[in-house]
Specification:
Layout: H1 2-34, H2 36-39, E1 43-46, E2 49-53, H3 93-109, E3 132-133, H4 135-149, H5 153-163, E4 164-165, E5 176-178, H6 179-188
Antiparallel strand pairs: 1-2, 3-5, 4-5
Helix pairs in contact: 4-5, 5-6
Length: about 190
């Protein structure tokens, strides 16, 4: 019996050191060596201070900024500590009511815009933290943002085109726009 207990305790100690110390340190070291920006949160720094991350969305509601996807995180939007979707199915009355309210809010914010509203402006992503919107969702907002900033729509559209990211490796994913980076580029435009 003593041999079995000693073997079990030895195995516990070895595996604890291997999986609890050596493996995490090796993975962290490799990440820092090969992907330092991502390993450190893909932070965006402006004027010496961190303004956000390329990987986590932020809440914008002023008319002079592009707005991202709705976030289903609690207790506040884009809460990275509470990543998750709403888990509401497409026929759930709560989801239908939420989408109707979001459509009404978008129409109220830009009353002259009769364009169809892209789905990513009225539905949350699976994580609730998505920092990107589709080019169509950004294009829908160009008139409102241009008007609020007193800028020509062509200037804002050209900036949007420059900020649109291509598919990864030319085939993975969809074209997308990082909302924070687009809004920072807007702030950098001369008025």
């Amino acid at each position: 019996m003593k041999e079995h207990v000693l073997a079990a305790v030895t195995m516990l100690a070895v595996l604890t050191i291997l999986t609890g110390l050596i493996y995490p340190l090796a993975v962290t070291g490799l990440a820092q060596l090969l992907f330092p920006e991502q390993a450190n949160g893909s932070l965006i720094v402006r004027d010496g201070r961190v303004v956000g991350s390329r990987l986590i969305g932020q809440f914008f509601d002023k008319p002079e900024y592009f707005w991202g996807r709705p976030s289903a995180t609690a207790p506040f939007p884009y809460n990275a500590a509470a990543s998750g979707g709403s888990n509401l199915g497409p026929t759930n009355p709560a989801l239908i009511d939420a989408v109707k309210a979001r459509v009404a809010a978008l129409r109220a914010a830009d009353p002259g815009n009769e364009s169809p509203i892209p789905v990513d402006l009225v539905t949350a992503s699976g994580s609730g933290l998505d920092p990107h919107i589709s080019p169509a969702a950004a294009l829908y907002q160009v008139k409102r943002v241009s008007r609020a900033r007193g800028l020509d729509e062509g200037t804002v559209s050209a900036l949007l085109n420059r900020q649109t990211e291509k598919r990864q490796f030319g085939l993975l994913g969809e074209r997308r726009v990082n909302v924070l980076e687009l809004n920072l580029a807007l702030d950098a435009l001369p008025r």
